[in-house]
């Protein structure tokens, strides 16, 4: 099982130079991945605190790609519904080229739709966002191919576009699909792509997703794989807040691996505490 970091690009982490330092530390300490949350605005309902410094995750990832050479990078997760998929196609291919083929694209509906969709005039309805996500993924795959591509959907249309260059990774940049378990549709969607990144529904009262237990993970994975018709490798990406005790953290990691997880992502915490945790795994 691979180990990665998944952290916001805002608040205490809203310093692009500190993020780059942390990514270098993670690579030097042998971690496998460094992922940033993709947000535009304070992402929790009812937030009344001070405005937070917030970075664009794609610009930050470009800086991280230039400062590292091995570690996988990406977003966890990009709400495709609030993106133009052709613009996202250009951005992801450019970042894949810059990083030498290290990008992974985490996608989902995205959380806190009132703060990040409605506030900016976007439709926050879950069904609309789901349709935009599915159509957006189809368009990404088509444009990543480097072949002439057209698309007529309910939400998006493309008229005979050819995007070059192709990404380094073939047949495409890996796509991990997030969803709240035990909702079923996101996991049927994930089965069509390259990995699943589950959280537990319902969300906690503060708007943050819950964490799946190892038993939850087994149930979720069995359902997801029952809808998969490909023999290609498939990632199971778990997120967890690790206990401070090293033995307990090791036991929890081993229990997720035994349940079928291929990645374990840790975060968020303070930059200094995260730095200490990164070095502890070296």
What portion of the residues fall into strands of 2 or more residues?
15-25%
Radius of gyration: 18 Å
Biggest sheet descriptor: 8 strands, parallel, barrel
Helix content: 25-40%
CATH T-level topology: TIM Barrel
Count of domains = 1
Q: What's the rounded overall pLDDT mean?
A: 92
Tally of individual helices? 9
Cross-sheet strand order for the largest sheet: 1-2-3-4-7-8-9-10
Looking at this structure, what is the CATH superfamily?
Luciferase-like domain
CATH first level? Alpha Beta
CATH architecture: Alpha-Beta Barrel
Q: Overall 3D geometry?
A: globular
**Could you state the order of secondary-structure elements as H and E?**
EHEHEHEHHEEEHEHEHEH
Briefly note the structural class of the backbone. alpha/beta
Number of strands: 10
- Ends: how far apart? 15 Å
Please mark out the parts with pLDDT under 50 across 5 or more consecutive residues, or reply none: none
Task: Explain briefly what this protein structure is.
This protein has 282 residues and is an alpha/beta fold. Helix content is 37%, strand content 20%.
């Amino acid at each position: 099982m691979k180990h990665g970091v998944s952290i916001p690009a805002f608040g205490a982490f809203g310093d692009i130079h500190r993020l780059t330092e942390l990514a270098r530390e993670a690579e030097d300490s042998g971690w496998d991945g460094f992922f940033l949350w993709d947000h535009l605005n304070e992402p929790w309902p009812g937030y009344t605190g001070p405005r937070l410094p917030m970075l664009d995750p794609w610009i930050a990832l470009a800086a991280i790609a230039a400062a590292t050479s091995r570690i996988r990078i990406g977003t966890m997760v990009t709400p495709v519904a609030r993106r133009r998929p052709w613009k996202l196609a250009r951005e992801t291919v450019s970042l894949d080229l810059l990083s030498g083929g290290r990008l992974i694209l985490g996608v989902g509906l995205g959380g806190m739709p009132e703060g990040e969709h409605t506030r900016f005039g976007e439709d926050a309805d879950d069904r609309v966002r789901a349709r935009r996500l599915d159509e957006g993924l189809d368009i990404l795959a088509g444009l990543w191919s480097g072949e002439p591509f057209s698309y007529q959907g309910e939400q998006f249309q493309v008229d005979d576009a050819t995007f070059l260059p192709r990404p380094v990774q073939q047949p495409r940049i890996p796509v991990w699909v997030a969803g709240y378990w035990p909702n079923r549709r996101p996991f049927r969607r994930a089965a069509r792509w390259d990995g699943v990144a589950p959280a537990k529904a319902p969300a906690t009262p503060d708007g943050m997703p819950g964490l799946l237990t190892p038993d939850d993970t087994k149930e979720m994975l069995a359902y997801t794989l029952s809808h998969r018709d490909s023999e290609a490798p498939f990632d199971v990406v778990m997120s967890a807040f690790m206990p401070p005790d090293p033995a307990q953290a090791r036991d929890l990691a081993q229990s997720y691996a035994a349940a079928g997880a291929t990645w374990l992502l840790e975060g968020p915490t303070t930059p200094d505490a995260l730095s200490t945790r990164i070095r502890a795994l070296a």
